[in-house]
């Protein structure tokens, strides 16, 4: 899923560009964005195009800028990728993803809501012997939270 990370990275860098709007960018700028060589940037662009995330037209010649177009909005890419990270238990990476500068607030909120839902256990109805429990929060090794609701 590294290809989605690379798409999100470049999409956030050029967040002022609307979806399906073409713009010109150099391969050197893209290589700098992905912290790789120009040769690897071309490979990444080919993979992104194969996945249907972008349209890319090479600039043809040294120093010529390439044409790039984003085909998928962040609303279609970030939430599914975030859910996949959470299901894999990569909580730190998932939180880092949505805390990045440029991630729209509505995406951030929906992802946080999903994470809280995933990390909570369902409400448990306690029987009479357990009525003396007080509200407690316990963290487990898996990163899940367990809330105990008791009578005071």
From TrEMBL:
Boundaries of every Transcriptional regulator SgrR N-terminal HTH domain copy: 2-101
Superkingdom, taxonomy of origin: Bacteria
SUPFAM superfamilies named among the record's database cross-references: Winged helix' DNA-binding domain
Pfam families recorded: SgrR_N (PF12793)
Identification of the protein by name: SgrR family transcriptional regulator
Species this protein is from: Polycladomyces zharkentensis
């Amino acid at each position: 899923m590294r290809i989605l990370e690379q798409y999100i990275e470049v999409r956030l860098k050029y967040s002022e560009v609307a979806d399906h709007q073409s713009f010109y960018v150099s391969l050197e700028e893209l290589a700098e964005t992905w912290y790789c060589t120009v040769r690897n940037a071309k490979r990444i662009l080919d993979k992104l195009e194969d996945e249907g995330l972008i349209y890319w037209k090479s600039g043809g010649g040294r120093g010529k800028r390439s044409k790039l177009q984003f085909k998928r909005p962040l609303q279609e890419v970030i939430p599914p990728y975030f859910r996949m990270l959470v299901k894999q238990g990569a909580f730190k990476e998932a939180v880092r993803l949505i805390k990045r500068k440029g991630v729209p607030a509505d995406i951030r909120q929906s992802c946080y809501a999903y994470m809280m839902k995933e990390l909570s256990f369902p409400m448990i109805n306690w029987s009479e012997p357990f009525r003396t429990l007080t509200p407690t929060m316990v963290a487990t090794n898996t990163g899940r939270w367990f809330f105990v609701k008791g009578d005071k």
